[in-house]
User: Fold these one by one.
Assistant:
Number 1:
Amino acid sequence: MNIGRVVGTVVSTQKDEKLVGTKLQIVKQLGLDCSETGAFVVAIDAVGAGQGEVVLYASGSSARQTPITKDRPADAVIMAIVDTIEVDGSLRYQKT
């Protein structure tokens, strides 16, 4: 799993039929200090995340383990919206 922030949406009217009905989000990876690392993925959103939200996402074969992504050509999936991040007893992020 990775931590990321939703920064955009991808809209595609022509796509594989197994992707019809999925919401595609652009997610920038975050480090433990919640700063962007520069890496990003396009992920299927399985939880209804919105612009700017901090999320947990999985990539690779793990991305096809949710009911929404099962048997779909997915390499990344948003599977949780983060409420708080605590590292070594220090609060790094809290959803407002």
Number 2:
Amino acid sequence: MNPFTYGNPIKDPARFYGRSEDLRQIVNRLRSSAHESTSIVGERRIGKTSLLKYLDTPEVAERLGLPKSEFCMVYIDFQGLTDITPVRFWQRVLRKIERSICLPELVPQIQTLRDLNSIDLFDLEDMFETIASRGLTTVLMLDEFEYVTQNPNFGSDFFGGLRALAIHQNLPLITATRRELVDLCHSEELKGSPFFNIFANVVLRPFNRSEVLEMLDGYLQGSAIQFSEREKELVLGLGGGYPFFTQMAGNYLVEARLKNLDGDELLKDVCANFDNQADSHYSYMWSHSSENEKVTLLTVIALNQKKFSKETSPTLENIARNHMRAHLDLPELVKRGLVIENKSGGTYSLLSPSLERWIVREITVPPGEEETQANVQDWLQTGGREELKPVSGFLPKFKKKYWSLVGGVAKDLSMELLGAVTWQVITKGLM
């Protein structure tokens, strides 16, 4: 049986690894005298739902200092609920509380409130005050909360009421979103709401090396298959510290071992299956990156192609020399996990050679399908893009929709990008 799975959040707490510092911050805020709220922020597939589900496990909550007798942990997933309204929001919340609360004598009051066609803020205050008076803190863990903040059905009155309940009625919130809450509002008016001031951000980042190795060893414990050091490096390289991608790489490595593959055959099999499965996830990451972030990613790829030297290594200084906005883009790309920072060397690389391969395939055209130089010149002239003439000779190798993007990379790096088209990264840095 393959011990590595991917696609669904981790539900078995025994399979949950890492995030000790993130958990510490969240729990400390919940246990403070003010019972403070936390906003979990992280790229898709970074493990936000797994973290919330871990907190939602009674024995885990007990071990972390959140016993059921003191904390009623309520998990709610809003993914796909595009038509939800404030009434339906509270009905869903109340139904979850009704199932989770350790005080059965309060269930009739909760049911009565839930069955109302219109739920008044004063009624909610009365109910949560009653719960708090019994020494119980209700914690709302709101997954995919952007489906609420970006929904025009929810105005400033709703968020003002939710803020009041969180602060005054012992109702701390733990939200999980891809970006910071204030950036996920449906209106400028809502961005100014004091609701967003009650949260401290906890940004989920990729695992470090020791956390990945701990997870690999934990999953393989008791298994008939054990990874060699070279195979662990393969998984580390492909996964880039993402728990999801790490599990995917581990899964395909086990499958290759079960097929009795080894050496280059094993490497090619794992990389080919991983690349194919990761394709849609890379597409999402790329599509949710700004044009400037994409130029920064291309610049990082190109600099990593150059022979290492003080002037060409992918440091912040060298990246910014070739793309002036890089000093603004790199912190965000690192936070999202698309770029990995080597702090000891001060250099940057993409999260995985697999992502580099995907970007190269995405921006280039297959052989024989290149645009003509005449079409390039026409594009330059009609668009008033005279500044891109120095790289016009390289543009036919790239898809037309990316010509402006590629043109944003410095001229002396364009050849490096071209080199990446045929660069054999299958084995680079992996084995």
Number 3:
Amino acid sequence: MVNVTLPTLVVDLDANTRDLQWIIDAYTLTFAALVLAAGSLGDRFGRRRTLMLGLVIYGLGNGAASLATSTEALVAARAIMGVGAAVIFPTTLSIITNVFTERGERARAIGLWGAATGIAIAMGPIAGGALLEAYSWPATFLAKIPVALIALGLVAWLVPDSCDPEAPRIDFPGLFLSTAAVGLLVYSLIEAPQAGWLSTQTVGLLLTAGVAFTAFVLCERRTSHPMLDVRIFRNLRFSAASIAVAVGFFALAGFIFLVTQYFQFLKGYGPFETGLRMLPVAISVAISSIIGTQLAVRFGTKFIVGGGMILLSIAYGWISTSSVDTSYVEIALQMLVLGTGMGLTSAPATESIMGAVSNAKAGIGSAVNDTTRELGATLGVAVVGSVFASLYHGAFSPASTRGIPGAALGPAEDSIGGALIAAQRLAEGGATEAADTLNRAATTGFFDGMQAGCLVASAVCLVGATICFMFLPAQPQPVANETIPDGIVEATGKAVA
């Protein structure tokens, strides 16, 4: 919903590229940094009341955003939304796991949970585009407040409460170290494309994040009541599935980063029309999420998740062949393959993760799922964005931009949108040859970058599929004569490999 408002914010709030980046990333940063801690606290203090608290925080954040008169205020409001989302997300899956304890029922419920994600992929841009065209950008934030209030009432009425019956003392060192480690890692990934991947800043932040992660693991191994029993990562149904989720969202976030620009700048679709044309991927994610979890129970998680990632790899390879002349029918077919692969990957992998933790620790298990998803998405935008930017900028060589005024080259090299606007102004000023040259260079650079970015995503998905087929167990396997760490059990009570 927020993505479609970005061009308007450039005009209304005088936002530059850096401002737009942080309007998006402030939410990502607080969400990713706090979700592990929030999942742990939900297990302790009760998941229903935690979910209700998160909805209140999220609603307040949207209210503040609708009143923002500067980019700084909007960034701060987006950070508050991220805090609310960090509280909401892990409680949803942990509540589902505690309500539906039989694996088949739980798989169906998680499939529907994954389908909701697919629906949101389309509903956000569609609703945001309609509100933006009918009213203004504050309406895109105001519209979410009644939704949060309705959800709050339904949770209070219908959702049963649950918590960890042992309710150990709060692991303050674990809370602090997990927040610091994930926060530093996400911040370094957000800043890396601009600062440089080998810059002192990026390397320093990554090293510091590594130290924080190491300290977190050591701390959790030594405490008697850890926030996260890190021994759970020995369970391949948990760790391999977490890798699958991260890889899937790495590729999806990179795709959304590219396709929104492709639709709006190269195909000329408006915000609302862009949302409508994303329906194939949303519908296919929704349907395959429901079907995928059932197939995983019947035929094995390994084969469904691995097969889903192969479909993702095929989809990105196909998308890399797109050009400005590619018909929407072909694009829609590409998105159907992509959405099907995403649904078969994400929802069954999530079911595997949640089946590998006890009901008492469902909140922290869900939080790990959310963290890997957010880290994968952040890394996807950073890596795919960097690959795209390097090839896009490379298209503006002295030979390819001969005759173009320097004043037009600056915004053109900054973004494809800036290039097309600059070309239009050159044409309006009578410099049609320079406009054509600029348009050709920008379009060539965009598709070079898009092709390379999609091929990177395709390769990453292929590696992810290989990992799944090698390490992800097909089904939960009882383990005889072996001590299993607390919390590393099938939700039905069976120990798993």
